[in-house]
TrEMBL record:
Domain of life where this protein originates: Eukaryota
Species this protein is from: Emiliania huxleyi (strain CCMP1516)
Family: Belongs to the MESD family.
Gene3D superfamilies hit by this protein: 3.30.70.260
GO cellular component, one term: endoplasmic reticulum
A GO biological-process term: protein folding
Protein name (record): Uncharacterized protein
Keywords, in A-Z order: Chaperone, Endoplasmic reticulum, Signal, Wnt signaling pathway
One matching Pfam family: Mesd
Chain spans, region Disordered: 26-104
């Protein structure tokens, strides 16, 4: 490429960059100017558009703009029991599963885990160490649950999302110290009925 052509290409590129920068600066100046010219009434309208129903309820009745519906939190619908589907189902295990699924809540729930390990049940020290380890594992798996020691051989899992109870039960039963879990009046796992600390491994 000739030196003159190179110079022209470079000059054209420089002019393009300058014009784009100038347009961007003009746009920013325009936005700043419009923002500076907004009145108290304009700001109040902007604030009302972004208020939640709870916030606006304290100030009196609020107009229901359709735009707000797009941003409002909609909790998941709780699963109910489809009685007709239950009656059509012939397999007793599937029927039991349908009833269990209908009892799951979207809100808080608790799951109890019975533990057993060498030296178990004399005090809470070993069980507290297990609960700490389980909390770390739950966090690393991204599960929203906390493990608390209830007594020397029982750990309580607490979660704000009851729909994930099955995953928490599965997690607990995978742990070598877990004898059984109790959730929703159902005991899961082996060793059921054997008091913790009395089993032989």
């Amino acid at each position: 490429m000739a030196p003159a052509a190179t110079a022209r290409a470079w000059l054209a590129s420089a002019l393009l960059v300058c014009s784009l920068a100038s347009a961007g600066a003009r746009t920013q100046r325009d936005i700043a100017k419009k923002t500076a010219q907004m009145t108290e009434e304009d700001w109040r309208r902007v604030e009302e558009e972004w208020e939640t129903p709870e916030e606006s309820a304290s100030d009196g009745p609020a107009a229901p703009p359709q735009e707000k519906e797009e941003y409002e939190f909609k909790p998941p619908k709780a699963r109910g029991l489809d009685v007709e589907k239950l009656q059509r189902e012939k397999d007793p295990k599937k029927r039991q599963r349908m009833v269990e699924d209908s009892q799951k809540t979207t809100g808080p729930t608790m799951i109890f885990a019975t533990v057993d390990y060498p030296g178990c049940c004399e005090d809470k020290t070993g069980t507290e160490e297990i609960a700490k380890r389980w909390n770390a594992l739950l966090g690393s798996k991204g599960m929203d649950a906390q493990a608390y020691v209830v007594d020397n051989a029982t750990i309580l899992f607490s979660t704000n999302h009851g729909l994930f109870a099955d995953e928490i039960v599965e997690f607990a039963l995978e742990q070598p110290e877990c004898v059984a879990t109790d959730w929703n009046s159902k005991r899961s796992g082996g060793w059921s009925g054997v008091p913790s600390g009395l089993s032989s491994r």
